[in-house]
Design a protein that fits this description.
Layout lengths: L2 H13 L13 E5 L2 E4 L6 E6 L2 E5 L4 H12 L8 E3 L5 H4 L2 H4 L6 E4 L2 H12 L10 E3 L2 E6 L2 E6 L11 E4 L4 E3 L5 E2 L13 H14 L5 E3 L2 E2 L6 E2 L2 H22 L4 H4 L19 H14 L3
Parallel strand pairs: 4-5, 5-6, 6-7, 11-13, 12-14
Antiparallel strand pairs: 1-2, 2-3, 3-4, 8-9, 9-10, 10-11, 13-15
Helix pairs in contact: 6-7, 7-9
The chain binds zinc ion.
């Protein structure tokens, strides 16, 4: 990773703690269906299943918010933590792993996640060993807990090289991790294994695999937009990513260099995908798209 990209990634990481909840819910816990719900505080949305015979946590935010989430869950069930899942490796989804993993009987993620966590820690210059999942899978992983089935699937490189789509089957709730930034600029993490085309393909496959009744949980949402929603929201970010590729392709066709392209901070057709606090988002994403289209490693 060159210095420019490192600084861009570092500024993104610095942004996450300041991301605020988009909805004005008075409590961080929002039940969705059949014991499945979301916890929002700082960082990527946490999903949970809390019943008398199952306790599952999906993503861990940061140590302090993971503690708050855990104490809230303890008020909902006395069940031990059957399963901890990370949807992928970024610190705003795994930073509280050290708090929750000691409680967990199992801790699972896509098998690329531990190496990506260590790579990201090295890029940040941290010498603390990250708390990594203890169980990895390649394409699918599933477990029955009480009257619920938790099914993980990796569709290939997309937002990163280690994304999981987590389906609570009977509740029909799906945690997308950061495969969906709902109406805000996404972090397209080239060094973390992102593929813009793969991401588009994943969103289309997931959209086709579920129904209009399915409730989706999103890693993040823009101001005034929700961190849960219907599958139609998957196509909104799909359209943005399509627009991103088309914009990069036009630059390539016009003979622009990557640095020239990366001066663009807003895509004209996608005004929602810009925020003043993080103007680097589109330049970072365009660089990844440009390299991908050019076939660069
Ligand atoms: Zn995130």
């Amino acid at each position: 990773m060159n210095r420019r990209r490192f600084l861009a990634a570092a500024s993104c990481a610095a942004l996450w703690p300041t991301l605020r909840r988009a909805t004005a819910a008075p409590l961080p816990f929002q039940p969705l269906r059949r014991g499945v719900g979301v916890f929002t505080s700082r960082g990527g949305t946490i999903g949970y299943l809390a019943t008398n015979d199952a306790l599952v946590v999906v993503d861990t935010q940061y140590p302090d918010t993971a503690e708050a989430c855990w104490s809230g869950l303890r008020e909902r069930t006395t069940r031990p933590l059957d399963l901890l899942v990370n949807t992928y490796h970024h610190g705003d989804h795994t930073g509280g792993n050290g708090v929750l993993q000691p409680h967990a009987r199992q801790h699972v993620a896509h098998r690329n996640v531990p190496a990506l966590q260590r790579q990201a820690a090295a890029q940040r210059g941290t010498d603390t060993e990250p708390t990594v999942p203890t169980l990895g899978y390649e394409e699918t992983w599933e477990q029955d807990l009480g009257d619920e089935t938790i099914r993980l699937r990796h569709y290939g490189p997309a937002h990163t090289g280690g994304d999981s789509v987590v389906h609570f089957v009977q509740a029909d709730v799906v945690h997308m991790g950061d495969l969906v930034f709902n109406r805000m600029p996404p972090f397209v993490d080239g060094p973390g294994g992102a593929s813009v085309r793969g991401w588009i393909d994943t969103l289309e496959q997931v959209h086709a695999a579920f129904s209009d009744e399915t409730i989706f949980i999103f890693g993040h949402a823009g101001e005034g937009h929700a961190i849960t929603g219907p599958r139609a929201d998957l196509l909104a970010i799909r359209d943005f990513l399509d627009g991103l590729l088309a914009f990069a392709q036009a630059a390539l066709d016009a003979g622009q260099t990557e640095d020239e392209l990366a001066r663009t901070q807003r895509l004209p057709d996608f005004p929602t995908y810009y925020r003043d606090s993080w103007p680097e988002a589109i330049p970072i994403a365009l660089r990844v798209a440009y390299r991908e289209l050019r076939g660069d490693p």
